[in-house]
Amino acid sequence: MMLDLTGRIALVTGSGQGIGRAIAQIFAAQGAKVLLATRSEASGAETLRLIREAGGSAELLTVDLSTRAAANQAVAATLRAFGGLDLLIHNAAVFPMENLRDLRDEILESTLAVNLKSCFWLTQAALPALCQAEHPRIVITSSVTGPRTAIPGLSHYAASKAGVNGFIRAAALELAEHRVTVNGVEPGLIATQAMANLGDSPDLAAGIPLKRLGSPQDIAHAMLFLASEQAGYITGQTLIVDGGALLPENTQFT
């Protein structure tokens, strides 16, 4: 099955590294024009270089998606660069480790703003353009942490991702009349730079039935399907991509 995105326009947030970079690269390889929205100009420039060297089409916006104004700016930059918007891909997230009893207001607020509030802001800004698209899609990177599992020191992150899943379902219901589908991907343990905060990779992989950490490309390919024309009858859903980590009732079965 060919998942062709030729001629479609995508805004990918958090696309400077890791999962977001993989999403942007794979979407561009399938023919999409991609607006890269990321906090780091250096990492964003590297993603831009990789896409263009592979023959893809992309533009870069350096932006911190912690405010409504920044979300509006990202959508406006996409419309300005490519003249429309078909695919809104919200992947940007922050997850600083901090125990609940010591959690500072600024950490809580920034986590909720980037991870959860941006879902609202980006959707509101993008909706007029999405309603003009032939196959409009919103796809959000959620997580198994929060909706299904917990990690000490990440209560703020868990709450934000549980909220993301609630947003996906409610937004899917509201936007169905506009033909906009809203779905998400829940990554498990993925081999990214941020994974260094959680421990040694071999130890983490040992508890996963497939015996490896996921790759950013594993998540990007799931995103590609949900963004494709072929996924047009799927909405309000999240797809778990975790190598089977959530399957065992007890770790003795892995």
Features of the shown structure:
254 residues; seven-stranded parallel sheet; alpha/beta; 7 helices; Rossmann fold; single chain; globular
Q: What would your notes on this structure say?
A:
- Strand 1, helix 1 and strand 2 form a beta-alpha-beta unit.
- The longest helix has 26 residues.
- This protein has a seven-stranded parallel β-sheet, sandwiched between helices.
- It has a single domain, classed as 3-Layer(aba) Sandwich (Rossmann fold), CATH 3.40.50.
- The model has no long low-confidence stretch (mean pLDDT 95).
- By secondary structure, it is of the alpha/beta class.
| Poorly predicted sequence stretches spanning 5 or more consecutive residues | none
CATH topology tier name: Rossmann fold
Strand content: 5-15%
Count of individual domains: 1
Cross-sheet strand order for the largest sheet: 3-2-1-4-5-6-7
What would you report as the Rg, rounded to the nearest angstrom?
17 Å
Q: Give the rounded overall mean pLDDT.
A: 95
The level 1 CATH classification is Alpha Beta
Which structural class do the helices and strands define? alpha/beta
CATH superfamily: NAD(P)-binding Rossmann-like Domain
- Elements, N to C (H/E): EHEHEHEHEHEHHE
EC number: 1.-.-.-, 1.1.1.100
Protein name: Oxidoreductase TM
GO molecular function: 3-oxoacyl-[acyl-carrier-protein] reductase (NADPH) activity
Keywords: Oxidoreductase
